[in-house]
Design a protein that fits this description.
- This protein is an alpha+beta fold and about 500 residues long.
- The protein has 2 domains: about 160 residues, Alpha-Beta Plaits; about 280 residues, BirA Bifunctional Protein, domain 2, CATH 3.30.930.10.
- The strands form 5 sheets. Strands 7, 10, 15, 16, 17, 18, 19, 20 and 22 form a 9-stranded mixed sheet that branches. Strands 2-3-1-4-6-5 form a 6-stranded antiparallel sheet, covered by helices on one side.
- The relative contact order is 0.11.
- The structure holds adenosine-5'-triphosphate, zinc ion and magnesium ion.
Length: about 500
């Protein structure tokens, strides 16, 4: 059996009886259709009409094919010729119904699939996967079967990647440092009343002391990295509609981690009256009633840079303004981290400075290098921490099954990790990513010269920086470097006392 096989049965409903032109149709199928369905395929390959029958005003076709001219392509090809022939007899095509469409392909049966969109049933058997598609003619015109096969290819690649441990390669290791602390800094901050768990999951209220530390980090970043490298500040939106994630690629995979945002279907108070009444009587917020009245329109900021791209979406940029360097620190990021929540290290709501640079391929690659060197100085001389840098597979490549591409090491991510003495574990506290042409392509941004446009981004997690600093150096400023105390002051502000 060939590696992939398609079998399609379609019923063509016409506006008049076909009996009278039965012979002419048979001749068409033999003389015109046959070569049409093999066009472009190697000899002996392509699609064939296995069966063709006429009754009243309908024509039933069974098409079988290999990978070269997929059966639905064959049907689309046939349609034009057929409607021309019918038109000569003043007959039109009313509708094309897909009676059945079955695809069978070689498949590693250890990769289990439970459900697929546009698939009625799927069967794993003897190293093959057989799909009975649930498609109409419009779906064939939209190339749904081709996309389905692409999805299967992606799943196959993702599975081959999953077996191996995640790609991680040490690039750089700092010197060992003297640790001044061996406790969990979150617990210590709670004890001292610096932070209080907020009402939401994975969410904290930061008192004056950690807030002073976060602001010091931002100031260090500005003075040591952003200003010298010519960055300017912008304000990126923090609600992200689907349209943005469709372009950034996130729509392919972030669903389990999104904080969803919904709008009311209407703001007519009457529409909401029974919800209000229910609450007033029970003091319970009626989730079921609310669910029926709202619509998910997107999610809260997840990766921070995607909504920025709308600023230049569809535009052409003159080469002489490159490289573009902007950053945002205007709001929170939100991720549903589920069971992974831990202290201020893994949160559902966190604070991050996002740094974005855009340029030619050479500019973007060399700027990432400059950025890394600037960061190193901060960690060495100001935070005075022990850390390492590692090359990892970028999220979008792993998600899109393009992990192989990362081996080139031009597009990809450098994670900065630091050891937490209290647990002995390493924690990623920021990253530097070169995203290739992914964002310019996704948001249709072009360069005047026609050269390829690239971009990179770097996310500096303030809670993660704090988790790392405090875990290694403790909560007493006198144990920190002079350089750091220049930004934080010698004493952190305290305001609250409780009885
Ligand atoms: P992890 O592997 O720890 O989940 P990630 O790979 O999901 O991190 P990125 O998507 O690379 O993280 O996000 C960039 C930066 O944002 C991280 O380096 C970190 O500083 C911060 N960050 C991401 N997720 C969280 C979180 N749940 N809590 C706090 N900071 C976070
Ligand atoms: Zn980004
Ligand atoms: Mg994560």
């Amino acid at each position: 059996m060939p590696d992939i096989q398609f079998r399609l049965v379609a019923v063509v409903r016409c506006s008049g009886a076909l009996e009278a032109i039965r012979d002419e149709l048979a001749a068409f199928m033999r003389d015109r259709a046959e070569p049409l369905l093999k066009r472009g395929a190697p000899p002996g390959c392509g699609a064939i009409i296995e069966h063709c029958s006429v009754s009243d005003d309908t024509l039933e076709l069974e098409i079988r094919s290999d990978r070269f001219v997929r059966a639905h392509d064959a049907l689309l090809r046939l349609k034009n010729g057929l409607s021309r022939l019918l038109a000569r007899h003043r007959i039109g095509i009313r509708a094309i119904e897909i009676k059945s469409y079955e695809v069978s392909l070689e498949w590693d049966t250890s990769i289990k699939l439970k459900r697929l969109p546009f698939v009625r049933t799927l069967k794993h058997e003897d190293g093959r996967l057989t799909l009975v598609l649930d498609v109409d003619y419009a779906a064939l015109e939209r190339r749904i079967p081709d996309r389905l096969l692409k999805l299967l290819e992606d799943k196959r690649e993702a599975a081959s990647w999953k077996g191996k441990s995640e790609h991680w390669e040490l690039l750089f290791e700092s010197e060992h440092r003297q640790w001044k602390f061996d406790k969990d800094p979150t617990e210590e901050m709670v004890k001292r009343g610096w932070i209080v768990h907020a009402a939401g999951r994975g969410q904290w209220i930061y008192g004056p002391q950690p807030t002073r530390i976060f602001r010091a980090f931002e100031q260090i970043l500005i003075e040591e990295v952003l200003r010298p490298l010519g960055y300017v500040e912008m304000i990126f939106p923090k609600f992200v509609p689907w349209a943005v994630w469709k372009r950034s690629g996130h729509a392919k995979g972030i669903y389990p981690e999104v904080y969803y945002v919904c709008t009311p279907k209407t703001r007519d108070p009457e529409y909401w009256e029974d919800v209000m009444d229910y609450y007033k009587i029970t003091n319970e917020v009626p989730l079921d009633m609310i669910m029926e009245r709202i619509e998910p329109v997107g999610g809260m900021c997840y990766a921070q840079c995607p909504p920025f791209w709308v600023f230049i979406q569809g535009r052409t940029i003159p080469d002489d303004i490159l490289p573009i360097k902007v950053f945002d620190r205007s709001g929170t990021s939100h991720r549903y981290e589920s069971g992974g929540l831990h202290g201020i290290e893994r949160l559902d709501e966190f604070h991050r400075v996002e740094i974005v640079w855009i340029g030619t391929k050479e500019q973007v690659i060399s700027h990432a290098e400059e950025l890394r060197m600037r960061y190193r100085r901060i960690f060495d001389e100001i935070l005075d921490i022990e850390w390492r840098e590692a090359w990892v597979t970028p999220w979008f490549m792993a998600q899109e099954g393009r992990a192989g591409l990362a081996e080139l090491k031009e597009v990809g991510t450098v994670d900065f990790e630091a050891i937490l003495p209290y647990s002995g574990k390493w924690l990623e506290f920021q990253n530097v990513s070169i995203n290739g042409d992914k964002y310019p392509k996704g948001f249709s941004v072009k360069l005047q010269s026609g050269k390829e446009l690239w971009s990179g981004c770097s996310g500096v997690g303030l809670e993660r920086w704090a988790a790392v600093l405090l875990a290694q150096k403790g909560l007493e400023p006198h144990n920190w470097s002079d350089a750091l105390r220049r930004y934080t002051g010698d004493r952190l502000p305290g305001v609250f006392r409780f009885l």
